[in-house]
Amino acid sequence: MKAFYLMLLAPMILLAIFSYGPMYGLLIAFKDFSPGLGILESPWNNFEHFKRLFDDFLFIRALRNTIIISLLKILISFPAPIIFALLLNEVRHMKFKKVTQSISYLPHFMSWVILSAMIVEVFSPERGIVNYFITMFGGDPVHFLASKSAFIPILIGTDIWKEIGYAAIIYLATMSSIDTGLYEAAEMDGANRFHKMIHITIPSIMPMIIILFILRLGSVLNAGFDQILNLYNPLVYEVADIIDTYVYRAGLEQFQFDYATAVGLFKNVVGIILILGANAIIRRKSEHGIW
């Protein structure tokens, strides 16, 4: 038993240093922070940064964009790996199944810096393959990444492309633990593959879907900082600027560390409330939940 506690020591130390230690810095959200005075000596500001939040047009815009992008990702991106896993689970040609899985996993292990460079090239108005086909059929080149109407669909599509394979792993693992006797019994009763998927596979993975959905709701104000930071530009700020990019500019570019901390704290508190609320609602309606 002592060996297990010893193995646990290293991750606990890392958690304390990198997750709990920085919480001390949250104090500056309630202060007029001055680097010269330090965190403790800086004067308290009577919640002025939080009062400023909803008077700031740029914050309201970032909050609106964050909610819109996050809800679209929940509605479209969240079901995508479930559907992919269900379809892949029905494949009987094992070599094709393994190759498909390997190809779908690959984008997850590449950073958004690399993937964004690829996406920029694909949608480039001068040399992108998409505009090549548009001009080949007589159309005019389109600057997709500078278009307010095209930018959000590109975000959703590339997010699915990057994560669908890796996110499907947990569903495929859950499906592999389903009792095969259930399928055999259903087959004896005349059920086809579609019926077995609807009445056995989906109900069996539903607890996992619910848990992951609750956790996803908790990050509803995380719309994909790395992705958007590497793809957006001032021409699409109106639809693409989210809370995280707003905090990035306010804190690191404008040196408003205290205000940026207040914005970040607001976002995290909302996330906690959403997790607790969603878990409480689902626990009332079913036996599933995080706790």
Structure description:
With 291 residues, the chain is mainly alpha-helical. It has one domain: MetI-like (MetI-like fold). Helix content is 71%, strand content 0%. The protein is built from 15 helices and no strands. It starts with a helix and ends in a 6-residue tail after the last helix. 23% of the residues are buried. The mean pLDDT is 86.
What is the CA-based Rg, rounded?
23 Å
CATH H-level superfamily title: MetI-like
Strand tally, please?
Answer: 0
CATH topology: MetI-like fold
Q: What is the CATH architecture descriptor?
A: Orthogonal Bundle
| DSSP helical segment count | 15
Class inferred from helices and paired strands: mainly alpha
Residues in β-strands, percent: under 5%
Shape: globular
Helix content: over 70%
Number of domains: 1
Q: What is the mean pLDDT?
A: 86
Described by strand count, sense and barrel closure, the largest sheet is:
none
* CATH class call: Mainly Alpha
Pattern of helices and strands: HHHHHHHHHHHHHHH
List keywords for this structure.
cell membrane, mainly alpha, 71% helix, 0% strand, transport, transmembrane, MetI-like fold, 291 residues
Write a brief structural summary.
The protein contains 15 helices and no strands.
